[in-house]
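Hi V.,

Quick status before I head out on leave. The structure for the redesign project is tokenized and pasted below; the design run finished overnight.
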């Protein structure tokens, strides 16, 4: 256990999942404690959630990263930033993460700017992004990004980890870049056995508008066709074998967008929730009312 209290600051803080991880490390006795010195977020709802989740005043929010000046930042041992990934992920248009692109993902470079401005650099900086950042399209820019960190004195360690390998039944691959100032070695945690399924995380009493449950109106071998209670027309095509095994099990025939047309079973791993899913919810089939059984 580290005897020190870890001083932490996060950028692109969202609802503060890295802070949640620190809370877990404290509970498990791996760190003594941690202290949030600041966070940086611009989305009003995220800020409200962050403050409620971490029981912290919104005066700790430094707001827009582009307006932050390094010399005004309090010292932290650890910085973490999962910079916006819409322009990098395959769900987006893949135009981001460049010096000149002026896209949201180029905001990642702001952390490099701040690292060069602070009087005392954090010992550990963790960057997180979608796995796509390691693809050929972004490789050169990622190399420039990493070169800048090396010039600032950091030793780098990188890997793509999948949440399913770490006790969470969600397929969610993320790139992690760990930059260490005074240490030359680091190993990413080894995968652990996952005993949970997506269903274990679903609440029991949820309003019908949040999930999908259809009545079987037609059956052909292993395929069932369900109607939506609202429009009484065949809409969902579901493969029962896949439904029982978990994962992608069907399609919403009326949905125009490939990603949000997919129907998932709760009997395995959850899919990655994309930005699209926030406006057109991911479809999780909780139950098949199969008349022919
Ligand atoms: C990929 S999310 C990070 C989520 C975060 N890791 C969490 O645990 O919730 C990126 C976040 O960056 C925020 N963001 C976008 N532009 C920003 C800016 N200029 N300054 C600070 N935060 C910004 C977005 O509002 C969004 O919440």
């Amino acid at each position: 256990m580290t005897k020190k209290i870890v001083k932490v600051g996060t950028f692109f803080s969202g609802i503060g999942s890295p802070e949640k991880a620190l809370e877990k490390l404290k509970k498990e006795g791996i760190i003594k404690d941690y202290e949030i010195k600041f966070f940086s977020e611009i989305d009003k709802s995220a800020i409200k959630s962050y403050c409620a989740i971490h029981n912290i005043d919104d005066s700790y929010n430094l707001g827009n990263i582009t307006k932050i000046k390094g010399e005004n930042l309090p010292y932290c041992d650890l910085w973490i930033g999962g910079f916006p990934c819409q322009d990098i992920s395959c769900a987006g248009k893949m135009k981001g993460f460049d010096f000149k692109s002026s896209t949201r993902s180029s905001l990642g470079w702001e952390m490099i700017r701040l690292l060069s401005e602070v009087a005392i650099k954090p010992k550990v900086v963790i960057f997180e992004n979608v796995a796509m950042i390691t693809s050929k399209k972004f490789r050169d820019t990622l190399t420039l990004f990493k070169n800048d960190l090396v010039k600032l004195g950091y030793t780098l360690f990188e890997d793509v980890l999948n949440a399913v390998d770490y006790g969470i039944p969600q397929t969610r691959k993320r790139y992690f870049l760990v930059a260490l100032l005074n240490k030359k070695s680091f190993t990413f945690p080894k995968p652990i056995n996952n005993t949970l399924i997506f269903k274990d995380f679903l609440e029991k009493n949820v309003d019908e508008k949040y999930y999908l449950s259809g009545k079987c109106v037609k059956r052909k071998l292993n395929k069932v066709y369900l109607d939506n209670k609202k429009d009484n027309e065949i809409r969902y095509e579901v493969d029962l074998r896949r439904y029982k095994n978990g994962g992608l099990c069907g399609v919403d025939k009326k949905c125009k967008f490939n990603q949000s047309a997919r129907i998932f079973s709760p009997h395995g791993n959850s899919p990655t929730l994309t930005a699209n899913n926030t406006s057109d919810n991911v479809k999780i089939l909780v139950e098949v009312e199969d008349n022919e059984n």
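Above is the designed sequence. Residues 12-17, 40-43, 46, 64-66, 82, 84-85, 104, 107 surround S-adenosylmethionine (CB under 6 Å).

G. will cover questions while I'm gone.

Best,
W.
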